[in-house]
Fold each of these.
Amino acid sequence: MIAAIPDIYLTIVIFAFCTAFFVVLLWSMIRRPKNRVTAFTADNGSVTIARKALEDVIARTCESFPEIVRAKVAVGTSGGRMQTRIQLQLRESARIRDFSDRLRQQITAVLTGNLGMDDVGSMEFVVVGIAAEKTKAPPETELKAPGPKED
């Protein structure tokens, strides 16, 4: 069957596959997220912070709130602005309306005050789970020794 295909068509098909492969490879290299975010620019240069460091700081800030059990943070950039997506696992008694503004303000304060960032970009909170409240004490499971038998 391959012998029936003229050599020019085979060459065109191979060239098309190679071109497509290199276009996809180039596109994936360009689309790869940056590992660092620029905190601020001074007269003598700029200061950058690793995305992982930002994610750790934001997660610790979130988990300092008693309403939050766990926080998973993803920091990215789009158009030169930082975008933060925070996935939260909350306690059953948490009321997100009550503390979401405080949480946003606390994260902004940490990023601008401690890390010196000029622009913290946008923050998106996503509730991904609700954890059950811990019970006060587990029920007794030990068997009690029988007391002295009275006749």
Note: The chain has a mean pLDDT of 82.
Amino acid sequence: MATGHIRKRGNAWQLIVAAGRDPGTGRKRYVSRTVHGPKREAQAQLNRLLVEVGEGAHQGTDATVGELLERWLAVASPDWSPKTVLETRRFLDRLILPRFGAMPLRKLTTAALDQFYADLRKSGGVGDKPLAPASVRRVHVVVRRGLQQGVKWGWLSVNPRGQRHPAPRAPGRHPTPGS
């Protein structure tokens, strides 16, 4: 069961609730909120926050996207072919980590990922040329699999690139007869 307390901070109340341990670092995690108003309102907010934490609404980690993807690659890559490891490493180093490596996992959104894929389609290739649709799709697979593992490990409560958000589409090939 989650525990918490209230303390006076100037003309506001600070609510602090213990949210368990960070699955990535092992450190204790706390959720805090500031409430302006009477102490009775602060107590009501604390009770709601305790319920939220108890139901797992504030689980996760303080780790970054880069930390998750690096740990995922280290765990998953021994089962892959050398070519797959090399290609995944290249996508991480060249495209994914420069954009999201330092971002906290909790701040990663579906909208940010959609914009990332759009930017790759526009100018993600060599010399700021468009990245091939099939390559954008492979980058998406790397991100999605890393985030799925983060959910399994308890680093994320949900995958921002879940099943309801399909991968960027690669245009179909239209062969011409006789060519």
Note: Residues 40 and 151 are 37 Å apart (CA to CA).
Amino acid sequence: MVWYLWNVSDKEIIAQKDAEISLLKAELAQLKKLIYGAKSERFVEEASPDQLSLDLGLDQPASQAQEVQVQTLTRKTQKPSKSKPTGRQAFPAHLPREVIVIQPQVDTTSMRKIKDQITEVLDYTPARFKVKQYVTPIYADPQTETLHYGVVPGRPISKGMATAALLAHILVSKYVDHLPLYRQHKIYRREGIELSRSTMAEWVAGICRLLDPLYEKHRALLLEQNYLLVDETPIGVMDSQKKGKLHKGFHWVYQAPASRMVLFDYRKGRSREGPKELLQNFEGYLQADGYQVYDFFQNREKITLLGCMAHARRKFNEALVNDKTRAAYAMGVIQQLYAIETKARKEKLSPHKIYLLRQDQAKPLMDQWHRWLQQNIEEVLPKSTIAKAIAYTLGQWDKLYGYLQAGHLLIDNNEVENKIRPVALGRKNYLFAGSHQGARRAAMIYSFFGTCLQHNIDPEEWLTDVLERIPQHPINQIEVLLPHKWAHKP
């Protein structure tokens, strides 16, 4: 028999190498998820006889809780539910019907009609340009020697050849449908209309100058809210001072859940100066992810900083390959917390009843989870993925716990993250903004269109109406043109 003597330093080296191997395995697994994994973040908790759990008496199991995005290695094809109708849905009633009667190719004079058999197919008429030609006859009054003539309607852009409808269509195509101006130029050319990209770019700039007072009012009203969600997303910007390189700017995105207003605020960087300046007079709840810039607001007396449970969940999802037992337990707890939120949403509970439900079911679960986190942080390798997940959650604990304070608060800031998606799609199409001013204009339009979508308003219909009215609209009544006000216009 051979005996090996290990000294303390050897054991430390082995432990260190084991930790490095574990970390590299976790990073490799995460990379495989990004490359090969499905976008679904579904997590099904595995029951364990020795796993600590709480019976909360929920109407549905934790595995059916609201899903937060997780990347998985397996792809599953979901079969359609048998309870759902499989037949073709009827076409919307609001669509105009062109009735075409097809008679039999025989003499039906002596026949009795039994019924009409109706077959509907969906047709499409391509959009067509038309020219509005205003004719203003001029009349002379011989008695007064004065001239009389009609007044041509004003245009959003002075002496411009485009109507409000065309201008609105160009902006919606660019910022909602993600069609850069050069693609729109090609589409219009197929219709025999030559609209240069430079002309359309000038129109976009002109519209934004016209809407600038409306944007200022929009921003002021959003900042009067007492509960905001915030996140940020990068945007490439051409900078004359950086030849051959793109400047990395940022759109800071704010959402007010109560009024369903969305605000994009462009800044040249990702430092705290952007939100610090914008929110200098803000009072209330501010919900964000774990980005350290937001920690500045913890020292503000009239601001309560809230965290995002979805971000904590992602940390444990990444740790599944490192320590499945602990990571799965944490994700199971989070699933139960989301199940409570799903229950409140399905039952359409009032904020007060949501508060009581959380105090009864979510608070005990959070307290138990906190004790588990404090215990397990001492039992894992400091540099492991599971350790980072636990440390992140403990570091954010007061902010994550904060949503229990009131029923109108949300468990995460996923709502504002969803508002960032149009920017991400836009980046894939137009790649970058032509200037810092162009990025600011994009922020303005994204703010309006994002709020339109929150209120189920057709952004093209809203913008067409606003562009027709705003040139003559009183500046002290401009608030009524904002999307969330326009939605309730008489």
Note: The radius of gyration is 30 Å.
Amino acid sequence: MLPTCILDLNPCKARNYVLTVAFLLFAAPVFCLAQDHWVGTWAAAQQLVEPRNALSPQDAEDMTLRQIVHLSIGGSKLRLRLSNRFGKTPLHLTAVHLALPVSPSSSRIQPTSDKALTFSGATEVIIPAGAEYVSDTVSFSVPPLSDVAITLHTDQPPAEQTGHPGSRATSYFVHGDQVAAPELHGSQTTDHWYYIAGLDVAASSNASATVALGDSITDGHGATTNGNDRWTDVLARRLQTTQQAANIAVLNLGIGGNRLLEDGLGPNAMARLDHDVIAQTGVRTLIVLEGINDIGTLTRQTDAAPAQHQALVQSILSAYKQIILRAHMHNIRVIGATILPFGGSSYYHPTAANEADRQAVNAWIRASGQFDAIVDFDQIMRDPVHPERLLPAYDSGDHLHPSPAGYAAMANSIPLSLLLAPQP
């Protein structure tokens, strides 16, 4: 029904008004086109790259950098997320391309697959200091569990580099603009990622992402370079074997050395919750595996009084509660993972008091009912004879990080039904 104010118009104006409204009503469906459903298929937590892992100013100037990432779910369209979050000056990329690589262990790409990305229609982009950018959509069909080569060219590096040192993947760089080159001849290599934060894929309407928020055990210390055998990789492969779960992506947002409460190699988990969890595209579920570095760091340099141990445990539990609360505000389910044993670690030299802290935290994870669900990694990974230690078959050798076999055991212990449950 038309508004009563039409009665106050003269007949000519009223007729024109009715015709205009009728035209808009019939034309409206033309503008209500179906929207793509975007989900993150790969992501990496961004941090300030420390000097020992940064590209030298000479290498980063007039540089073509080819980086290979491993996807979880597939789709017909992609868009790339780039980051200058920790840069102090703008990041100027003169060109950015996507292509299918021949192998993660080579700079070679399949030339016919190479496509240039644009940003608001332009082939170059200037990303302000502290900012992130999303590319325009590109038609680029990729199957699940495939690799994509991201090649970019920088003229001048920003002051301070943003990236992800724990890539467990080889990147290739040469001088000059060679973004479309089938192979980067004479390239140097580095096992780090720079400036790339995520790839989103246009997926089915019921697709979603599961984010793994964690430290080096999630980041994959001890995994095989270019082998994609972190626990998150194994989980992604498991999901693809089940039709009901094949539309669930797995995003690894681990940072080596990360802590819940204090900055280390990268911002603390509480500080990066917005960027690394809530802002991920299509996220529905969060798995939290954090706390081992908080417990270990307390006594790494000196002993701590009983009151300090008690305060640390309470601070960890408070951080968990905040993560759960903030995730639920965005309809994200939260799965708590128990902290793995690290007895015998030569890095932390854990004492009986550290072990008591770990046991207290794990008891709360199991019994508090605060998490929507739990995965008991501790139970799977511990040595039954020495429960404060990793099972030798799952130990990388440093008594802190799992081996590839250990990571597989972690992934295989997760009931896929937990990732199919409805949102809170």
Note: The CA atoms of residues 6 and 14 lie 6 Å apart.
